[in-house]
Write a structure and sequence with these properties.
284 residues; alpha+beta; Rossmann fold; OB fold (Dihydrolipoamide Acetyltransferase, E2P); 8 helices; 26% strand; Response regulator transcription factor; transcription regulation
Length: 284
């Protein structure tokens, strides 16, 4: 049963958008649940109850840190009285819907905290301006919607994000390396490159995994990733994850960790078009 965390500091918008999320949950008829939070601190406190007494990179828990409205099941309305949201240990969230501009901890700050804690569920950002879109790349947001958000656009974004979450739970590529066999989550793969007769995968965690010697071409070795809409071949020996690409020039791609991926001349136009369309489709 998918679980969604919704964070919005404006009471009116929290009620309006919360009602749409409630409707979406009912229409899915699969037990989808939604928790509402009035601030970034409230969400972080519910997820990490020990954060108040531990270092938290500047994120503080407010007096209403545990406040949330819980949907008992996909066919019921929100509970009349607020209650503490189920902590991630018991009911991990599959999707976060976050307002960008909030006092204290912004939606971007919250996203960075989630990623730092190893929570990589898709994030859909809501905001009144597109000026924070570039910052949302830091947390690899699944979507970025500008308010007022139309119901069709919101529902489409939620469908894409939950579909992505489902793939994360079941998908993965198996890589044979000297240490044994590793299963890699495509979401965390920034890029893959040919190194000698092996493929090196650079991950968002900073780790690099090198395969054993391959007996096929690079394209054949990364075929599964190349068929994923998030990935694109940049040349004969490089493949990049569009979710982690922050800029494209005529000669290379810049990744979210600052790494440059060479771009072949004959692929430049197609890669730039794919990258722009990838983000435009997620920001509609």
């Amino acid at each position: 049963m998918p679980a969604i965390a919704f964070c919005e500091d404006n009471a009116t918008e929290r009620e309006t958008l919360g009602a749409l999320l409630d409707e979406y949950a009912r229409e899915r008829r699969d037990g989808t649940t939604v928790d509402r939070y009035p601030s970034g601190a409230a969400l972080l406190s519910a997820l990490f109850p020990d954060a108040a007494s531990a270092p938290n990179n500047g994120v503080s828990a407010g007096p209403n840190a545990s406040l949330a409205h819980r949907v008992p099941n996909a066919h019921s309305a929100y509970a009349a009285a607020p209650r503490t949201a189920t902590p991630p240990a018991a009911c991990p969230y599959d999707l976060y819907v976050l307002d960008v501009i909030m006092p204290g901890s912004s939606g971007i700050d919250v996203g960075l905290q989630l990623r730092a804690k190893g929570l990589d569920a898709p994030i859909v950002y809501l905001t009144i301006s597109r000026e924070y879109a570039v910052e949302s790349y830091q947390v690899h947001a699944a979507d970025y919607l500008v308010k007022p958000v139309a119901k069709p656009a919101l529902f489409a974004a939620l469908d894409r994000a939950l579909s992505l979450a489902a793939r994360h739970r079941t998908a993965g590529i198996v890589v044979k390396c000297r240490e044994g066999v590793r299963r890699l989550d495509p979401e965390r793969i920034l890029c893959a490159e040919l190194k000698g007769r092996a493929v090196r995968y650079t991950l968002s965690t900073g780790e690099a995994i090198t395969s054993t010697t391959i007996r096929s071409s690079f394209r054949a070795a990364v075929e599964d990733l190349a068929h994923d809409e998030r990935f694109i071949l940049c040349g004969a020996s490089h493949l990049a994850n569009l979710q982690h690409v922050t800029a494209v020039s005529r000669t290379d791609l810049t990744l979210s960790n600052g790494m440059l991926v060479p771009l072949s001349r004959d692929r430049a136009t197609d890669v730039k078009r794919r990258w722009m369309n990838f983000w435009l489709e997620r920001g509609q």
